[in-house]
Design a protein that fits this description.
single chain, 385 residues, alpha/beta, 11 strands, GH, hydrolase, glycosidase, Glyco_hydro_1, Family 1 glycosylhydrolase
Length: 385
């Protein structure tokens, strides 16, 4: 297909099955080095996400996940093992996946109904990421480090000042708070005000503030799927489309389709941070069906991706935004995290499997496969289909 970069994630238990071992599992490291070597054989840059919404069950149960500061040491041990084995081969690293979107995962110490516990866990993730950047820079001076955030667009539902303020507040609390700390290097005033209002006190160790300030990430990676509109009655604990946007079409699952919103977000983020940006997830889930020719004629996917790539091009050429790259979700059909089903398909390659896991697992190119191969080859210049 001609990929230039491949983003994949580490399964923590393949390296440290319980998280407490003193030495990493060689077989797990061999597995990931084989993946990296296969990429490099085809001139594909590996982009590795160290923690993708999971951890060993042992340390989750014993310590309560990220609520415990002990997890910082466990994470640094994982990162060190990866850097020692893969450091000479991998340049691009993401410490966490969608760090602002895991508040509902109690096994990670991120239960959304326990705000005091959740924000303490987030602080430990912030420190773990910063210390990983420090260690990574010492071990791999040419490596670049980012963190991935879920940052689809937020708009006010109307020009009512209450809606405008609600949208701004939601955007900061649900998204920009995390990138503010990890890029600017300190807790913003609005977060301190929120913590005071909610009775939250972050327990810090001496030196934490200096660590956050000194070891910020090099680039901001983010996912973009939709836009959401917010009013002053919106529940800020809901990340997905809270209210329908009458100006936008939707996917079969009701997700708004907003290519211009991606350009909006690219401008929003660069205006705020002046750091390079990397779009590491973007795609549309659809009801793909094999036709009489044994393939999927998914022109809707070509249009979705093509329209978004056009807006990325506009952001680069017209707005002068430094965009490092673009990795759509996902190359091959897989189970949708949002709905837990195979029916909601994202890939350029069809996987013969149903929601119950039944099927031959055979992989079949969709029409979008050759189309996206051409898009890569022309660096987005030819989006025709």
């Amino acid at each position: 297909m001609g990929f230039k970069i491949f983003r994949f994630s580490i399964c923590w238990t393949r390296i440290f099955p319980t998280g407490e071992e003193s030495e990493p599992n060689k077989t797990g490291l061999d597995f990931y080095e084989n993946v990296v070597d296969e990429c490099l054989k085809y001139d594909i840059e590996p982009l590795i996400t160290i923690c993708h919404d999971e951890m060993p069950a042992y340390i989750a149960n014993k310590y309560g996940g990220w609520y415990s500061r002990h997890l910082i040491d466990c994470f640094l041990k994982l990162s060190k093992a990866l850097f020692e084995r893969l450091g000479g081969k991998v340049k691009y690293w993401l410490t966490f996946n969608e760090i602002n979107a895991v508040m509902g995962y109690p096994e990670m110490g991120m239960n959304s109904v326990e705000d005091k516990k959740r924000f303490q866990g987030v602080h430990h993730e912030f420190i773990a990421s910063a210390l990983t950047v420090k260690m990574g820079k010492e071990m791999m001076p040419d490596a670049l480090f980012g963190t991935m955030f879920a940052l689809s667009a937020f708009y006010p539902e109307s020009c009512n000042p209450k809606d405008v303020f609600a949208a701004m507040s939601s955007r900061r609390v649900k998204g920009l708070f995390y990138s503010d700390v990890m890029i600017r290097g300190y807790y913003p005033n609005y977060a301190l005000g929120l913590f005071e209002e909610m009775g939250i006190e972050i327990k810090k160790e001496p030196g934490d503030d200096e660590i956050l300030k000194k070891y910020t990430i090099d680039f901001l990676a983010f996912s973009y799927y939709r836009s959401a509109i917010i009013n002053d009655k919106s529940n800020i604990n809901i990340l997905i489309d809270a209210n329908p946007n009458p100006y936008l079409e939707t996917t079969p699952w009701g997700t708004s389709v907003d290519p211009l919103g991606l350009r909006y977000v690219l401008n929003e983020l660069y205006d705020r941070y002046q750091r390079p940006l990397f779009i590491v997830e973007n795609g549309c889930g659809h009801l793909d069906k094999l036709d009489e020719n044994g393939t999927v004629n998914d022109t809707y996917r070509m249009k979705y991706l093509g329209d978004h790539i056009t807006q990325i091009s506009n952001a680069i050429n017209l707005d002068k935004i430094p965009v490092m790259g673009y990795t759509p979700w996902a190359p091959i059909d897989l189970v949708s995290l949002a709905t837990g089903e195979m029916t909601k398909r994202y890939g350029f390659v069809y996987t013969d499997m149903d929601n119950e896991g039944k099927g031959t697992k055979k992989r079949i190119k969709k029409a979008s496969f050759d189309w996206y191969k051409k898009v890569i080859a022309t660096n987005g210049e030819d989006l025709s289909y």
